[in-house]
Design a protein that fits this description.
- The chain is about 30% helix and about 25% strand.
- By secondary structure, it is an alpha+beta fold.
- A five-stranded antiparallel sheet has the order 7-6-5-4-8. It has a four-stranded antiparallel sheet with strand order 10-11-9-12. A three-stranded antiparallel sheet has the order 1-3-2.
- The longest helix is centred in the first third of the chain and has 17 residues.
- The radius of gyration is 20 Å and the shape is globular.
- The N and C termini lie close together (about 10 Å).
- About 30% of the residues are buried.
Length: about 280
């Protein structure tokens, strides 16, 4: 588990275009194998394990060249095992890291974009398969930040306004023009997933070393309370999107200590162990 976390931190801090060289990851992973080929096989196995857990890690090296791996932060939302309320969450846990998004011309529009655009323009209820589940939504607007397309819509199933990743939409079909609701209240209109009310609010306590306090506040982008403690500054955060918070904790590594409550600590350890088990 510790090795997987070291690999993730190295990839998160790596160049978003050139990636991190395989031999560097082998050193970071401390595989301690005399045979370089065996060490490479072990690294590839761990990369697959992380991929199975939902992290999109790509070898960007040309064919026949030594491997170089890139972690794509834009797709951290597509984790395996997301709860229904989290399926549309766009993970921004690595927002503070130096990321160079692809040029718009390099990103092909999603297959469903034309149908989704018609749904927004004509105010049609959109029926679709999303993450393998049939959904009916009331479209509100499109959003196109670098490298991705998003739909803001009201989900009929639970009555929650969400962001949907359009390239995850399959088999879209439209009801009659004007069938979608208008004037939908959208109080959680934010692209910061830590602000989305996916789960019941939970007060979480963290310990943060002084030199990392600014980074923690910047990446969470939330109002936090704090007080001095034995481990470092004690930070209190109201968490309403537990999965986004857990992913953020992974990116913070040893810079942050999760103090409580105990059920959140247990949930975080269970998630790490699930990744380690592959």
């Amino acid at each position: 588990m510790a090795r997987l976390l070291r690999l993730l931190r190295a990839l998160a801090a790596g160049d978003a275009r050139r990636g991190v060289a395989a031999d560097q990851l082998i050193r970071i992973g401390d595989y301690r194998l005399e045979d370089q080929k065996a060490a490479m096989s072990s690294l590839q196995r761990d990369v697959r394990r992380l991929g199975d857990a939902g992290w999109w890690i790509e070898n960007v090296a040309p064919a026949g060249s030594p491997a170089r791996y890139v972690l794509h932060p834009n797709d951290l939302a597509e984790r395996a095992g997301l709860t229904p309320g989290e399926q549309s969450v766009l993970e921004e846990a690595l927002a503070a890291l130096p990321v160079h998004p692809p040029e718009a011309s390099e990103v092909a529009p999603p297959v469903a974009i034309a149908t989704v655009r018609r749904a927004v323009d004509a105010r049609c209820v959109l029926e679709m398969t999303y993450n393998g589940t049939l959904r009916r939504v009331h479209p509100m607007r499109l959003h196109n930040p670098p490298g991705r397309w998003l739909l803001r819509a009201l989900d009929e199933h639970d009555g929650v306004v969400k962001w949907f990743l359009i390239h995850r939409i399959e088999n879209p079909s439209l009801d009659d023009p004007g069938s979608a609701r208008t004037g939908i209240d959208d109080p959680e209109d934010s692209l910061n997933p830590h602000e989305w009310r996916v789960d019941p609010p939970t007060e979480v306590e963290l310990a943060v070393a002084p030199e990392h306090q600014h980074l923690v506040r910047h990446t969470l982008n939330l109002a936090v309370g704090h007080a001095d403690g034995e481990v470092g500054e004690r930070v209190e955060v109201t968490v309403t999107n537990r999965r986004a918070f857990m992913d953020w904790l992974v990116t913070m590594g040893e810079r942050v200590v999760l103090l409580g409550p105990e059920d959140v600590r247990r949930d975080f350890l269970d998630r790490l162990e699930a990744v380690a088990r592959g």
